[in-house]
What we know:
Radius of gyration: 14 Å
Number of helices: 5
CATH superfamily: Metalloproteases ("zincins"), catalytic domain
CATH class: Alpha Beta
CATH topology: Collagenase (Catalytic Domain)
Number of strands: 4
Strand content: 15-25%
Shape: globular
Largest sheet: 4 strands, mixed
Structural class: alpha/beta
Helix content: 40-55%
Oligomer: single chain
Amino acid sequence: MIRYFIEDVEFKVPFPQKIRRWLNSVAVAEGYKIQELSYVFCSDEYLHKINVEYLDHDTYTDIITFDNSESDDLLSGDIFVSVERVEDNARSLHTLFYDELCRVLVHGVLHLSGYLDETDEEEAEMRRLESHYLALRP
């Protein structure tokens, strides 16, 4: 089950069912099933506070993923997404907001699937997988 929540921003998830089906297919392709994912769409400030409080990072970011999985084959987590950061990223990357949003959403699923992006090599693999799955969107 994938649920969407909105905190302190005006936002409506575009094509919510289509995104759910796509993210479920990504999880299956990675060898998992989604048990429960909560996407929380919020402001930069909201996500910054979470970043400082829980991760001790005093930086702005587009996404923070908390893994709540209790099984090796089921994905469960809370994924916080800064709508403002996604908008800024889309502008600076000269891409559509929807494309950047989907990149960030799949990024969270990939983190829950075990992928990291802390080294240059890990980040390159994450970007490759994001691009691969973005190309498979319906």
